[in-house]
Amino acid sequence: MTSRFTELTVDCLDPERLAAFWSQVLDFKVIDRTDDKVEIASWEPTVEDIRARQMPPTVQFIRVPESRTTKNRLHLDVSPIDAGTEEEVARLLTLGATTVDVGQGPDRNWVVMADPEGNEFCVLRTLAPR
Description:
Layout: E1 7-12, H1 15-26, E2 29-34, E3 37-41, H2 47-52, E4 58-63, E5 76-78, H3 85-95, E6 98-99, E7 111-114, E8 120-123
Parallel strand pairs: 1-4, 5-8
Antiparallel strand pairs: 2-3, 3-4, 6-7, 7-8
């Protein structure tokens, strides 16, 4: 017996806003939507594909009534694939991200940011060809 990692769920106040932000960050598209949930992905999941092999998870944004109150215990890391890290950080700032200090110190090769609702994520080293 085994399971597959199929969805990452983010509790939030505004699913549409966060789905739009993360769709632009990751180049994903909306694959499902209800009044209280928006799901984005890089592919259209099917049961057959999921059973056959591990596929990238989708990301769901679920409306909850309360705001985030403490540092995330789980966060996303993203790696730029066609620009440098500094250029990607600048792009994400224009999309509504902010840089944050969670005690990471100045001598790190990643940048800690937060999405429009304050959920932390890291921009790691670039994977762009040199």
